[in-house]
Amino acid sequence: MLLKGLKHDLKENLEVCLTQKETFEFYISFFDSLFNEFTKFVLSIHYYSESDKIQIKELADYLIELSFGVSKKNMNSYNRFITVYDMFNLSLTEISNLYRKKRIYLENYEFKLLLKLIFSSSHELTNLLERL
């Protein structure tokens, strides 16, 4: 299952990050690569299936669980993850539409993280992980 593989890869990345005593920003750079890779892909989506929404929600839960290790060093970063999690109350379709219409300021840190979570749940992820 895609989500299971993604969880393993994210956990592995976080463990490397923590053992190398890297910062939270280093961990976020993993999502930056996903963000850059999937911008066009997400803009092409007009409908998110219930299965997509469930996978994205599970991924958000898992990321918050993983971020506890980081939060010990940087509580502000953990709080940003919680803000992202709260934003899942918006429908994913509406988020995608707002992004297309540029009605949300795209430099907003929390919104960019949310988009990264959406991108990383896509079926294109396998190809990206093979190149990382």
What gap, in angstroms, lies between the N and C termini? 19 Å
Largest sheet: number of strands, sense, barrel closure: none
The best one-word shape is: globular
Q: How many β-strands, per DSSP?
A: 0
Radius of gyration: 14 Å
Whole-number total of structural domains:
1
Instruction: Indicate the percent of residues in helices.
Output: over 70%
List the uncertain runs: 31-46, 67-75, 77-92, 102-107, 121-132
Blueprint of the fold:
Layout: H1 2-19, H2 24-43, H3 50-71, H4 75-86, H5 92-101, H6 109-120, H7 125-131
Helix pairs in contact: 1-3, 2-6, 3-4, 4-6
Features:
globular, 0% strand, single chain, 7 helices, 77% helix, mainly alpha, 132 residues, disordered C terminus
Description:
This protein is an all-alpha fold and 132 residues long. The protein has one domain (2-131). Helix content is 77%, strand content 0%. The chain contains 7 helices and no strands. It has helices at residues 2-19, 24-43, 50-71, 75-86, 92-101, 109-120, 125-131. Mean pLDDT is 50; it is low at 31-46, 67-75, 77-92, 102-107 and 121-132.
Could you give a short description of this structure?
By secondary structure, the chain is mainly alpha-helical. Helices cover about 75% and strands about 0% of the residues.
